[in-house]
Write a structure and sequence with these properties.
The protein is an alpha+beta fold. 22% of the residues lie in helices and 24% in strands. The protein has a four-stranded mixed β-sheet. Strand 1 and strand 2 form a beta hairpin. Pfam families: IL8.
Length: 94
């Protein structure tokens, strides 16, 4: 039971379905969804592109680094080492 909840949570985290990518397909200008949770898991193999965004915390949104992946955007913990390694070689955009 709790294992199931955990795996669902991880899936949601890794996909960050709350996002519609800025290169996105559709969706008029409704207010931009935000990261309400971040992952510490090293997802660097999934990250594409050379830019990332930083999100300030503003409840319920949390402080996050937002990467692009093949399947959408990924909310990552700014304090995670892999995130810092990646962002040091990437360009920040807003
Ligand atoms: C981050 O970079 C350092 C220095 O290159 C490396 O030793 C370390 O393994 C990297 N950590 C992660 C989690 O990628």
């Amino acid at each position: 039971m709790s294992v199931k909840i955990l795996s669902v949570t991880l899936l949601l985290l890794s996909m960050c379905v709350c996002f519609s990518s800025s290169a996105g397909i559709r969706g008029p200008t409704k207010k931009r969804p935000c990261c309400v949770d971040v992952t510490n898991l090293d997802m660097s193999p999934e990250v594409v592109g050379e830019t990332y965004r930083e999100q300030a915390s503003s409840y319920p949104c949390v402080n996050a680094i937002i990467f692009n992946t093949e399947y959408g955007q990924l909310c990552a913990n700014p304090d995670a080492q892999w995130v810092q390694n990646l962002t040091s070689t990437m360009k920040k955009v807003q």
